[in-house]
Write a structure and sequence with these properties.
Strand content: under 5%
Helix content: 55-70%
Shape: elongated
Number of domains: 1
Largest sheet: none
Distance between the termini: 45 Å
Radius of gyration: 16 Å
Length: 83
């Protein structure tokens, strides 16, 4: 596993009412969700980045108002046209 350090002002944690550990977990989850939303990561890879199970990742998508279905309207229309 690769580890890196990010410097943040201590006021960030109090503004968000989070401990540093909670903030890091939430930052990993938020990043993974955004990359999933952009289509850069699969659900399983995003869950891995977030450090949670795939089920927990899918449940977290709702909290961020992100659909678990990453299909464009064009792709959906093509799929429906095939049937």
């Amino acid at each position: 596993m690769v580890q890196f350090t990010i410097e943040l002002p201590e006021t960030v944690f109090s503004a968000l009412r989070q401990t540093p550990a909670t903030f890091v977990r939430e930052m990993r989850l938020a990043s993974a969700i955004k990359w999933y939303e952009l289509g850069q990561l699969s659900q399983s890879k995003a869950a891995e980045v977030a450090g949670v199970s795939r089920q927990e990742f899918l449940q977290s998508l709702a909290r961020y108002n992100v659909s678990p279905f990453q299909v464009t309207s064009e792709e959906l229309a093509e799929e429906l046209a095939r049937e």
